[in-house]
């Protein structure tokens, strides 16, 4: 069982329109898993987007500060195309960690963000594979990487799935990451990212909007996903994606 989501190619018109706004606001040519999961929960995607949209201009500076807190990081060698893909995910994961932590905590205060253009769009990645369409050895390698994190609910970080375009990289990546997980190195860096993101998230809360909430049932499911993603899924992938970037985390955000 995998996490419920609506993929970009399968999105109905209203969902596709919000996906387009997310891509433009982040400067990313893809929509991250947490947002695709929100789209599968009735009324959650519009609520989440409308809540955080006013705070978007504050994100670039906030992500730079969180990135700076993580340096220096060990680097894991990757093929150029795969490293470029990791760089793309770094922007999304760092931004989502801050923004969605603020969303989980809720609006506090009332401020208006200054107008700012969205960041430049990063290059288009190869299409996102489907786990059930991969050759079994490749799917097994993707699942092994996801299993290192011990996430519940069938969460397969999208970066791992996207890296299936370079299947020969997956076993060495597992061999590099598994001892870092076993010794707690990833978890320590995750906690560093969480501490820095917490400060930035609270600073964003006055800029959030307060739209009509979805149903109580959908909101409970959304908050459960937010707690899981902001406490473990996203910050761990912030660390791992940054290790795969050929440059500093800050450079990977600004490029």
Explained architecture:
This protein has helices spanning 13-26, 33-39, 44-52, 59-70, 80-105, 136-147, 158-162, 170-182, 185-204, 216-244, 249-254. The protein is built from 11 helices and no strands. Helix 4 crosses helix 5 (80-105), helix 4 (59-70) runs antiparallel to helix 9 and helix 5 (80-105) runs antiparallel to helix 10. It has one domain. It is mainly alpha-helical and 255 residues long. Helix content is 60%, strand content 0%.
Name the features.
255 residues, mainly alpha, 11 helices
**With helices defined by DSSP (H or I, 4 residues minimum), what is the helix count?**
11
Question: What gross morphology would you assign?
Answer: globular
Query: Element order, helices and strands?
Result: HHHHHHHHHHH
Low-confidence blocks of residues: 248-255
Rg to the nearest angstrom? 17 Å
How many domain regions? 1
Question: Which sheet architecture does the biggest sheet show?
Answer: none
Termini separation: 36 Å
> What is the percent of helical residues?
55-70%
Strand-pairing-aware structural class: mainly alpha
Tally of extended strands? 0
Mean pLDDT: 92
Q: How much strand content do the residues show? A: under 5%
Fold blueprint:
Elements: H1 13-26, H2 33-39, H3 44-52, H4 59-70, H5 80-105, H6 136-147, H7 158-162, H8 170-182, H9 185-204, H10 216-244, H11 249-254
Helix pairs in contact: 2-3, 4-5, 4-9, 5-9, 5-10, 6-8, 9-10
């Amino acid at each position: 069982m995998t996490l419920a989501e609506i993929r970009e190619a399968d999105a109905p018109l209203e969902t596709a329109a919000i996906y387009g706004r997310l891509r433009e606001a982040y400067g990313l040519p893809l929509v991250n898993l947490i947002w695709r999961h929100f789209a599968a929960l009735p009324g959650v995607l519009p609520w989440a987007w409308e809540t955080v949209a006013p705070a978007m201009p504050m994100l670039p500076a906030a992500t730079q500060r969180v990135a700076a807190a993580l340096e220096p990081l060990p680097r894991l060698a990757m093929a150029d195309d795969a490293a470029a893909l990791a760089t793309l995910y770094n922007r999304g994961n760092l931004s989502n960690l801050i923004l969605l932590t603020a969303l989980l905590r809720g609006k506090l205060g009332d401020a208006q963000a200054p107008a700012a253009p969205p960041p430049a769009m990063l290059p288009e990645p190869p299409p996102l594979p489907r786990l059930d369409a991969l050759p079994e050895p490749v799917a097994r390698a993707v699942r092994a990487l996801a299993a290192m994190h011990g996430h519940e609910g069938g969460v397969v970080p999208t970066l791992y799935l996207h890296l299936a375009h370079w299947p020969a990289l997956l076993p060495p990546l597992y061999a590099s990451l598994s001892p870092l997980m076993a010794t707690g190195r990833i978890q320590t860096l995750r906690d560093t990212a969480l501490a820095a993101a917490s400060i930035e998230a609270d600073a964003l809360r006055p800029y959030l909007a307060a739209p009509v909430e979805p149903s109580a049932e959908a909101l409970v499911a959304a908050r459960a996903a937010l707690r899981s993603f902001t406490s473990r899924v996203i910050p761990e992938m912030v660390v791992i994606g940054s290790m795969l970037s050929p440059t500093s985390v800050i450079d990977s955000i600004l490029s």
